[in-house]
Structures are given as structure tokens and as C-alpha cells.
Design goal:
By secondary structure, this protein is an alpha+beta fold. The chain is 47% helix and 18% strand.
Amino acid sequence: MLRYEIAPAPQLQPDVKFIWALEEEAETYNRDSIIPDSYVELVINCGAPLYVETDDGERLDLPRVFLNGLQRKPLRLRTSGLCQFVAMKMYPWAVNPLIDVQANHSAGSITPLDQTWQDFGKTIATTVQHSGYEEAMYKLQQYVCDSSNQPPHDLHAIRTATKQLYASSGQGRMDELAAQTALSASQFERRFKYLTGVTPKTMARLIRFQNIVYTMYLDPLRRASHFAYDFGYTDQAHFIHDFKAFAALTPGEFLATNSDQFTEWTKWRQQKNTKLLLSKGFESIS
């Protein structure tokens, strides 16, 4: 596996987590599902065709460029050959101002992008083949910087409220967040859902879930009762029910199913800490 990552330019830092690229053999990539988290990904496929494997076993082919929005359940994203893509991991409020796409309000997470993006995707794929992933990532970043829209007037308020949810691991009170935006509770929920595609409560649950999964990676032996207490659930049963709603597995089943992934993630994290190229903020993990 080859994984590359760069920090966003200052212009994008309030709205973009990072820009990254992946190259991986199909046998390894197709082994795992994509677990829900609180981010939206702009994906440009530069390798073999990608497709979604549905619960019914059907194959839904994907275009070269698409958004993977906020998932409510695991996504079986598959490749028919060598997996190669360049992606931008964004905060959910950034979809419209950065990509000029309305946030996805449907249950499905995949949104194909328009022909302009498909044409640009070909440019990125050619760049990967001729100049490498680093050049392709910086080219994607520059394209987004040059084409981003004027943000809506209330973006700052929604962004600030959501970042408070991140800071509290999804345990903030919705009425307090609304009060800080100078909006009524109903106005806050309506604008939040318009910009992100989900309600504030759903976003809080996603943030809490992703923090639990991250903690599981760090400490897979941690007891379920400790997770329930640390992340503000009323009891252990509530924690297990909420976890299963997003993972389609109980915490114990999830740990058993993803043990190899935990090991690989730990190895990648250790390598990431030792292979950072400070001169350009560029990382290569192989």
C-alpha cells in the first residue's frame, strides 16, 4: 500500500481536513468496508474502475469523480483492479462553497459530479501517471482554491457550532449551539441541515461514533462500559445500540472483524510519524 497526504493550504484550512492519495492492490482494498465518519470526501479515481457493492449483491459502477457524503452505514466500495485515487477530505459544511454542489440529503452517500469535474478528473489521472501523486494532490488543491464560491452569510456560525461538536466529541447540547449562532433552534437546525445534509443531532452522533472507533484503534481491549461512560451514553445498552446503528455490528463484532485493519492502522500511524517530509508537509507511507 502507498498512502500520501498533504495539509491543506491556508485558504482551505477552515474547511478541509487534508488532501490524500492511495494506491493499493484490489485484494487488499476490497477486504474492508468504509466506516461512517463525520467528513465528506471528494474522490478522483485514477486507476481501475470503482464500484459500490450493494446489500443485495448488485454492482453500481461509479464515475471517475464523485463525492462520498456523510454515511449512515458501512459502504462496500470496491475496485476491479489496482486502486489509485486522489481525494480531499472536507468538513460537511464545505461541500457547497468549495465544490458548488448541494449537500446530499438522501440516505445514499454517493453523488456523481458534473462533466466539468469529470474532465478535470482526467487531468488528475494523467498527472498521477506522468508526475506522481504529490503533483496531482497540489493540482487538485489549486483547482479547488481557484473555483470555490462565495460562502453563504451564515457559514461561519454553522462552522463554529460544528467545530464545537468536534471539540466535545459530539457531546454538545443542541440548544446551546443554536444560542451561540444567534439563530432560533428551528432556524439553526434548518440551516445546519441545508449546509451539511444532516441534522445537528445526527452530526453529533457521527462525531461521537468516529471518536469511539478511533479510541478502539488505540485501545482495542477497552471495555464497553468504559466507552458508554466516557462518551456520555445513558448506559452500556444505549452505547451498543448506537454503535450498531452506524457499524452494522456490535462493538465486539466490530473489533473481531477489523482486527487486521487495526494492526495495519497502527503500523501506518507509526510510519506516518517517522516519514513526514517537513519541507513540503508531504507524507509517503508504503
